[in-house]
Design brief:
The chain is α/β, with parallel strands linked by helices. The protein contains 18 helices and 13 strands. A 5-stranded parallel sheet has the order 2-1-3-7-9, sandwiched between helices. Bound molecules: iron/sulfur cluster (2 copies).
Amino acid sequence: MIDILAARGLTRRDFLKVCGGLAAAMGLGRAAVPDIAKALEHAAKRPPVIWLDFQECLGCTESLSKSRYPDFLNIVLDMISLEYNEALMAGAGHQAEAKLKQSMADNKGAYVLVVEGSVATKIPSAMTIAGRTSIDIAREALTDAALVIAVGNCASFGNVQAAHPNPTGAMGMLAFMEQEGIDTGKLVQLPTCPVNPIHVTSTVSYFLTYGKLPEVDQYRRPKIFFGRKVHDECPRRAHFDEGRFVEVLGSPEEFERYCLYKMGCRGPQAYSDCATVLWNNKANWCIGTGQCIGCSEKDFWDELTDFYAPMPGVAVPGFGGIRVGADSVGIGLAAATGGAIAAHLAVSAMKGRIGRNSDGTVAEEKEE
Ligand code: SF4
Ligand code: SF4
């Protein structure tokens, strides 16, 4: 391990920082850093990893291969033996198939299986590789794996392919393993779209450190990543609680980063730690550039659409609200009032009259 670090120009201090980052991502305290460091340093044998792609767009591979934060992926990839991955391996065709067969035979009962994409169960011919259906390939690979990681919503729940009427019978790993009578105790699902690289590297590191999976919920999602709603950790939550909403895209309220609930944000329905782990090497995240569509959830295409309409059943604060000058005016007082305020603020902003109060709320300068 030290050789690998030196080759990458990393010092032991850098290594411990990485371990600290992993501990934080896994929801563990600093006390876990020595355990993680020891496990990563003394991994006697790099675990063999077989990566299969079924019905998907390759977005999860893209998400992982582009990750540079903070070299987690490179280090973890240096610590595993990636035996088979159609997108990244040099071999193709018969050569690749021979490699897959050999790897599965050599590492039977001991390999980590990463699955990207759903199995086509209703129309098996919709998903075939080298003449074999995804049903056959998945059944064999899942049965002989020591650990299964379903990356992304496709592999976890079927994603858009499984949306009504689900023509191919797209099925995620939990449902497929249950149907086939394969032990689901070795399965962990990481269902955002695409998968978050930090979720993958942290799950692998946890397994290497403790020799077991982290605690999971009913969908086999690690609770350390999927135990809380996006809404619970969102930096716009204070605006939600105070009834300050974006009502029109491009409005001053959007500029002020008010809550996006009324624009259709699904943060109140989605369980994931996206607000803290962020995306694109921690550059941004969905709510920073648009809104949450609930991609961590089962059947979100059927259950959480229309994405541009407020989701019913959410307790929305009725009072509080935008402060205009010295007066407090609650958006919740009346929809018409809220609309009028929004329109008035938009006009005021265009005229350059909007300022900020000392507590950060919007203030309007008085007409001369
Ligand atoms: Fe954040 Fe969306 Fe919740 Fe508003 S509704 S606080 S934008 S997660
Ligand atoms: Fe999916 Fe919402 Fe997380 Fe974005 S913020 S990745 S849409 S769960």
